[in-house]
Design brief:
Blueprint lengths: L11 H4 L2 H17 L3 H18 L3 H6 L5 H14 L2 H24 L2 H12 L9 H31 L6 H25 L11
Helix pairs in contact: 2-6, 3-6, 5-6, 7-8, 8-9
Length: 205
């Protein structure tokens, strides 16, 4: 199950405008960074759990938002334990996990197109200096869409290796996954060029 994908629903969080949610995300992360004790972070944890429950996000999908951080959090915790006390170490890791969980909740309850509309609106004033908000939005859309595509390619390659009875090791999968990703990128580039996405005046972003 891939993290960061829109999860359809009719909850209150799904109905809140994207701009409001992105503002709330920024405010929430700011509050997390200001909390310096475990009691405050424990309360924040219950709030995040409650928001996921209100959004109707299945537990497996909720866990998928933070699963990619597992090993990084282990290393970060070890480093912080060496440099600071255990309370500070736990606080740093918990702040990171909760921040990522909040960001994941926003993407789960907000369509990509809605978030890109907000980005394009915010970048509108930069048209005067040659920046094209629609082009920036396109880049962001391709980046976001690329996450499940790459995850799907990796899953296909992994399943193919297992079907042949081969031992699945990350470095063994690297080359075939990279080749397929590059092929996908070439095909995507050709499709965009065919649709005139590359027809821009010089000097514009």
């Amino acid at each position: 199950m891939t993290a960061g994908l829109f999860h359809p629903g009719t909850s209150v969080l799904h109905r809140i405008p994207a701009g409001v949610k992105l503002t709330g995300l920024a405010a929430g992360i700011t509050v997390l960074l200001l909390l310096d004790d475990l009691r405050g972070l424990a309360a924040a944890t219950f709030v995040v759990f409650g928001l996921y429950a209100v959004a109707g996000v299945p537990p497996r999908l909720a866990l998928a938002q933070i699963r990619p951080l597992l090993w990084f959090c282990v290393v970060l915790l070890a480093v912080q334990l060496l440099l600071t006390g255990w309370q500070r170490a736990v606080a740093v890791v918990l702040t990171l996990v909760l921040g990522v969980a909040l960001a994941g909740l926003v993407t789960l309850t907000t369509r990509v197109t809605a978030m890109l509309d907000v980005v394009e609106t915010l970048l509108g004033p930069l048209r005067r200096v040659g920046v094209r908000p629609d082009r920036v939005g396109l880049v962001l859309a391709l980046t976001i869409r690329g996450v499940p595509v790459i995850a799907g390619i990796a899953g296909t390659v992994r399943d193919a290796h297992r079907a042949r009875g081969a031992t699945v090791r990350p470095w063994v999968l690297l080359v075939p996954v990279l080749v397929r990703v590059l092929r996908h990128a070439d095909a995507l580039g050709e499709a965009l060029t065919a649709r005139g996405a590359d027809d821009d005046p010089p000097g514009n972003v």
